[in-house]
Amino acid sequence: MRRSLTLLSLLEICLLLNGCLYDNPPSGPAASIDTWLVGQWETKDSSGHLFKAIIAPASSDHYQVTLIQVAKQPSNFDAWISRVDGFSILTLKSLNDGPSLGKYSLFHYELLAPGTSPPGGVGPTRIRLSELQLDGSCRTLDSFRLRAEIRRALKDGTLLPPRDAVADLKEEKKLRENYAADTAYLNGFTTSGKLRTNATAANLSSESREKIPGSIIWIKTGGVTLKGETF
């Protein structure tokens, strides 16, 4: 039975790799790293719990990924982009001691339009990360049979969580309204002299909240610098 997980469950079970693990990857690296993925990322669940990820290039086709949750040990992964008939899959191999060691987790990533910007600023880069909606029996398949199941799910239109276009439109409307309210406030700041302290936090919480079951929106908060080059 295919899963429809809450944001908290997906983060704790999948992104911290306590479940949703596969014995084999769909393939080895099939493309060079996508530099859009490189950087520091954050997301929050509906309760305000903060999760962070650092994605750095390890080679021309491998990433080094560190996932951080407050009061827990960081989790580390080797990662690369697999492809099945042109469909890109972010493959993460667990480097953590325990049952997850050497296991794989599979996600599709999608670059979104920048989030609502503060007045005079530029909106943050956002990426939607979606768990592949494969049957649990696929977790023990070899790479050849796993690719076959991914092809079947792609053909059936069941590989990714369903989109809720109405929810997306409502969320975008809410962000536009928040932006308009902040702009109006700042225009009157010189006469009111009041300080708005919660605008940034509210905006981050609103933008990073789950919109599609089985998917998470991550917001880029900074870059990484390796050997003098910043990504």
The low-pLDDT segments are 1-19, 189-213
Shape: globular
Would you tell me the overall average pLDDT?
Answer: 76
Determine the strand fraction and express it as a percent band: 25-35%
Task: Determine the structural class based on helices, strands and strand pairing.
Answer: alpha+beta
Number of domains: 1
Brief digest:
Helix content is 26%, strand content 29%.
Structure keywords:
two-stranded antiparallel sheet, 231 residues, alpha+beta, globular, 10 strands, 5 helices, eight-stranded antiparallel beta barrel
Break the fold down into its secondary structure elements and pairings.
Layout: H1 7-15, E1 39-44, E2 50-57, E3 63-69, E4 75-84, E5 87-94, E6 104-112, E7 126-131, H2 143-156, H3 165-187, H4 189-192, H5 199-208, E8 215-222, E9 225-226, E10 229-230
Antiparallel strand pairs: 1-2, 1-8, 2-3, 3-4, 4-5, 5-6, 6-7, 7-8, 9-10
Structure description:
The chain has 231 residues and is of the alpha+beta class. It has one domain. It has five helices and ten strands. The protein has an eight-stranded antiparallel β-barrel with strand order 1-2-3-4-5-6-7-8. It has a two-stranded antiparallel ribbon with strand order 9-10. α3 packs antiparallel against α5 (199-208). It is globular, with a radius of gyration of 19 Å.
